[in-house]
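User: Please predict the structure of the protein below. I'd like the answer in structure-token form so I can feed it into my own downstream comparison script.

Assistant: Understood. Taking the following sequence of 220 residues as input:
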Amino acid sequence: MARAAAKIDFPALANQFEAQSNIAFCGPTTAAIVLNTMRSGSRDLPRDRSRLHPEDLQYIPSGFDLTVPRFTQDNVISKGAKTRAQVLGEPVTVDGKQVRDDGYQLRQFDELLRAHDLVTRLVVVDDKKSADEVRADFVENLTRAGDYVVVNYRRKDVGQQGGGHISPLGAYDAESDSVLVMDVNPASAGWVWMPIATLIKGMRTFDTVENRGYILVRPR
């Protein structure tokens, strides 16, 4: 990390980092991290009371709120078009057929971010997208404060166990030509310096309707 020049996003993301609570929630967890990083200290942050049990409140003074104002991987979902049940595998109708669509496809995740009033640029990594273009997008973003990169890739194509995955990037190291993937499932892979070429291989994979890719996101 000390050697990397493009790492301005790392401290802010690390300060808000949390691990996903289940294997379908890499998208909501990444959204919560990015939103908390951008809006930390805002007066209108939501409060998630879903994790408190009734017995937790029995000794709390009336009117006192135990919750910390912040986005969570549970409360970010409600603003998006995809429901929590659908993220967790509830079948949806596509062309008259019932199909499962767990988690988030790249475009669905982009819609979730925009539903939270963020400005995004979605990039599908197809055969026409060169490594130079991808690298340039990453480096430009990771050397500028206030905006972030989220990647969507297939784990098995980058040498990991599992299927599609979403996580933020924290830094770029020119000497190794690699990016720091701040994996939101540390029980699966942990944070890892991944070569650009390897990540592109994982993003250049088909997911339901189109290839995976990345999203550049900033506040409005």
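That's the full token string. Strands lie at 92-94, 97-99, 118-124, 148-154, 164-173, 178-181, 192-195, 206-207, 210-211, 213-219.
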